[in-house]
Design brief:
Number of domains: 2
Helix content: 25-40%
Structural class: alpha+beta
Number of helices: 5
CATH topology of the largest domain: BirA Bifunctional Protein, domain 2
CATH superfamily of the largest domain: Bira Bifunctional Protein, Domain 2
Largest sheet: 7 strands, mixed
Distance between the termini: 41 Å
Strand content: 25-35%
Bound molecules: biotin
CATH class of the largest domain: Alpha Beta
Length: 251
């Protein structure tokens, strides 16, 4: 069961990397949660680093062995992680918690949590997945420097009071377990519908920033492979896959 095995580390380079190292060495049980109180080389999407403040945030990874999940559907594992974080944050009384494609969690316009999923594929299936979650819990404004000062927030900043990180971890794991159950029972399409109902990007005007230039359009849907479809100015639907492209939702 997800969360029944927990590995707690005082400090590690990256919980995702630690999970990958363990998977190379041993049979890591499905659902194992690896939590670090300090991450020295946290990784984010698009090969960025993930900034952590020891004792003030949550950094953990969940190892999954999703029997029979097609490689083409791997993004669903990250999508319902974002939904699990959102659900856990809603318990704090915050109303304006949004999921932004592909799997960021925002409070208002600011990012409060990010998810990095790293999968090993075999024979067209996901052999195992490492779902890494970074959640800003008790940082103050002064803990966010540089571009983060403009774009990041924490639960404490958003609510005006500190929160116990261990309870939040339990909540996120509980919701993630429930999401996984939906996957087992209802399949990918049911989760996609849940995700579409809550993703804040779909239906909005977006600015697509691709390596070959930026363009504007309207986010139309997220398909069963996790790709975002954006209608450009000419009305043509263009497929955006998670990777080198960033999406800015326009006000
Ligand atoms: C993002 O860029 O939004 C994804 C950030 C993911 C950060 C988490 S923290 C726990 C896990 N270990 C890592 O090195 N990264 C993920």
């Amino acid at each position: 069961m997800i969360g029944s095995v927990r590995i707690e580390l005082a400090t590690v380079d990256s919980t995702n990397k630690h999970a990958a190292d363990l998977l190379r060495l041993t049979e890591v049980q499905h659902g194992t949660v690896i939590l670090a109180h300090e991450q020295t080389q946290g990784r984010g999407q698009r090969d960025r680093s993930w900034h952590s403040e020891p004792g003030l945030d949550l950094t953990f990874s969940v190892v999954l062995r999703p029997a029979g999940l097609a490689a083409g559907h791997q993004f669903v594992l990250a999508q319902f992680a974002a939904l699990a974080v959102r659900d856990a944050l809603l318990r704090s009384g915050l109303q304006d918690v949004q999921v932004k494609w592909p799997n960021d969690v925002l409070v208002g316009p600011r990012k409060v949590a990010g998810i990095l999923i790293q999968n090993e594929l075999q024979g067209g299936l996901v052999r195992h997945a490492v779902v890494g979650i970074g959640l800003n819990v008790n940082q103050e404004a002064s803990d966010f420097a540089g571009e983060l000062a403009e774009s990041a927030t924490s639960l404490q900043l958003a609510t005006g009071k500190p929160w116990p990180a261990d309870e939040l971890l339990n909540d996120v794991v509980e919701h993630y377990r429930a999401g996984y159950q939906v996957l087992l029972e209802g399949g990918v399409e049911k989760l996609r519908q849940q995700y579409l109902a809550l993703d804040s990007t779909v239906g909005r005007a977006v600015q697509v920033e691709a390596p070959d230039g930026a363009w504007s359009g309207r986010a139309a849907t997220v398909d069963e492979h996790g790709a975002l479809w954006v209608e450009d100015a000419a009305g043509d639907a263009r497929k955006i896959i998670v990777g080198d492209i960033s999406i800015r939702v326009e006000a």
